[in-house]
Amino acid sequence: MRRLKLTRTVLAALLALVLGAGLGGCAATPSPAVPATRTFAVAPAAVLEASQAMLMERGYVIRHADVELGRLEAVIARWPGYRLHLEIEAADGMNGEASDGQSRLAMTAWRGGQPLPPSLVEPLLTELSVRLDR
Question: Is the pTM of this model over 0.85?
Answer without folding.
Answer: no
